[in-house]
């Protein structure tokens, strides 16, 4: 039972770190694409990659438990900063997927939810 | 104990992330000195467009050119020295087919896609290679336009069928050129051809 929990913890840590790494890659790829179009998109199926990032993000926010440390109380300024950041991430997701039409709005909203839940994991 | 695992996983994932980034950059930088891609002209691919104008081409199992000339664009992510074009085609009416970069000068380097040296596959399609020196050719926004011309083609029902085009671009590899030169040439190409 204890071994099972340890195994589950390791898998969740891997998924969380993969999500952070893939999100970072997504941001770098997007920046490179703005500088030189097709530098990444010629060699990568962007739809599959973006879906993988979203799935990893969803699993992360659903299953990752807050770490056992003192929980800081969020103030209004913290909330404002988090909300502003998550909205920017949502716009970013929408911009990246705008080619798929109205579904990009959905992707943007999912991006906002995942980002908000991920940032506030330790405060819940 | 959990902290050790977390650190180890973190380090592995950071290394993997850097490797993934390097992998994609090395593709665009063509560090191996070669880049190959192919098309059947049925739809746009990242590196080769369809045959244009579209009303001169009928697409079924193959792309059938019914009026000439037609052209297609090749996307060059960086500076390459040579482009080798392998056409798999069927020319039942023995037209003189000319292929080359489309430039508006007298010294238009068109080459003849003839039967000499062509290999014949089972279903009568022939494969012929043409090589082009890419130096001093007009590349705009990373695209080089090639033209296929067959002046004798006047009857729409007697077209030229193209099954596949394989493009092999080559240049000096990273090991032959050196890292600094390689990256400098990449940025010079980007500065000149994409702005």
- Looking at how many chains there are and whether they match, the oligomeric state comes to heterodimer
CATH homology superfamily name of the largest domain in chain B: Galactose-binding domain-like
CATH topology name of the largest domain in chain B, in short, is Jelly Rolls
The secondary-structure class of chain A comes to: mainly alpha
How do the helices and strands follow one another from N- to C-terminus of chain B?
A: HEEEEEEEEEEEHH
Largest sheet data of chain B: 7 strands, antiparallel
Task: Give average pLDDT of chain A, whole number.
Answer: 80
Mean pLDDT of chain B: 85
Cα end-to-end separation of chain A: 26 Å
- Contiguous runs where pLDDT drops below 50 for at least 5 residues of chain A: none
Sequence of secondary-structure elements of chain A:
HHHH
Identify the CATH architecture of the largest domain in chain B: Sandwich
What percentage of amino acids of chain B are in beta strands? 25-35%
Figure out the total of helices of chain B: 3
Shape of chain A: globular
State the separation between the terminal residues of chain B, measured CA to CA: 54 Å
Question: How many individual helices of chain A?
Answer: 4
From the spread of the alpha carbons, the general shape of chain B counts as elongated
What does this protein look like?
With 124 residues, chain A is mainly alpha-helical. Chain A has one domain (2-123). Chain A is 73% helix and 0% strand. Chain A is built from four helices and no strands. Chain A has helices spanning 2-35, 46-63, 76-96, 103-119. In chain A, helix 2 packs parallel to helix 4. The two termini of chain A are 26 Å apart. Chain B has 195 residues and is α+β, with helices and mostly antiparallel strands. Chain B is built from three helices and eleven strands; from the N terminus they run αβββββββββββαα. In chain B, 23% of the residues are buried. In chain B, strands 1, 2, 3, 5, 8, 9 and 11 form a seven-stranded antiparallel β-sheet that branches. Chain B has a four-stranded antiparallel β-sheet with strand order 4-10-6-7, with no helix packed on it. Chain B starts with a helix and ends with a helix. Helix content of chain B is 24%, strand content 31%. Chain B has helices spanning 2-29, 174-177, 179-193, and strands spanning 34-39, 57-59, 63-65, 70-75, 82-90, 98-101, 111-112, 119-120, 126-133, 143-149, 160-170. The mean pLDDT of chain B is 85. Chain B has two domains: 1-30; 34-193, Sandwich (Jelly Rolls). Classes of the chains: A mainly alpha (124), B alpha+beta (195).
């Amino acid at each position: 039972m204890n071994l099972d929990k340890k195994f589950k913890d390791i898998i969740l840590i891997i998924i969380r770190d993969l999500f952070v790494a893939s999100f970072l890659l997504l941001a770098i790829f997007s920046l490179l694409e703005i500088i030189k179009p097709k530098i990444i998109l010629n060699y990568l199926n962007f739809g599959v990659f973006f879906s993988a990032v979203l799935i990893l993000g969803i699993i992360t926010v659903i299953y990752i438990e807050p770490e056992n440390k003192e929980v800081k109380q969020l103030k209004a300024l913290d909330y404002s900063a988090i909300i502003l950041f998550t909205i920017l991430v949502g716009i970013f997701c929408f911009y990246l997927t705008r080619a798929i039409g109205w579904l990009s709005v959905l992707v943007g909203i999912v991006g906002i939810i995942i980002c908000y839940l991920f940032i506030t994991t330790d405060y819940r | 104990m959990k902290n050790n695992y977390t650190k180890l996983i973190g380090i592995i994932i950071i290394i993997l992330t850097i490797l993934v980034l390097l992998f994609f950059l090395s593709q665009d930088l063509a560090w191996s000195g070669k880049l190959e891609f192919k098309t059947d002209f049925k739809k746009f691919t990242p590196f080769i467009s369809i045959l244009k104008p579209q009303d001169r081409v009928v697409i079924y199992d193959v792309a059938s050119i019914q009026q000439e000339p037609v052209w297609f664009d090749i996307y060059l992510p960086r500076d390459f020295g040579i482009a080798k074009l392998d056409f798999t085609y069927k020319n039942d009416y023995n037209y003189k087919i000319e292929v080359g970069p489309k430039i508006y000068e007298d010294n238009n380097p068109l080459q003849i896609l003839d039967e000499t040296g062509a290999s014949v596959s089972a279903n009568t399609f022939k494969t012929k290679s043409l090589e082009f020196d890419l130096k001093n050719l007009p590349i705009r926004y990373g695209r080089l336009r090639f033209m296929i011309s067959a002046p004798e083609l006047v009857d729409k029902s007697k077209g030229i069928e193209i099954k596949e085009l394989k493009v092999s671009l080559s240049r000096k590899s990273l090991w032959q050129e050196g890292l600094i030169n390689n990256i400098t040439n990449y940025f010079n190409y980007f500065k000149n051809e994409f702005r």
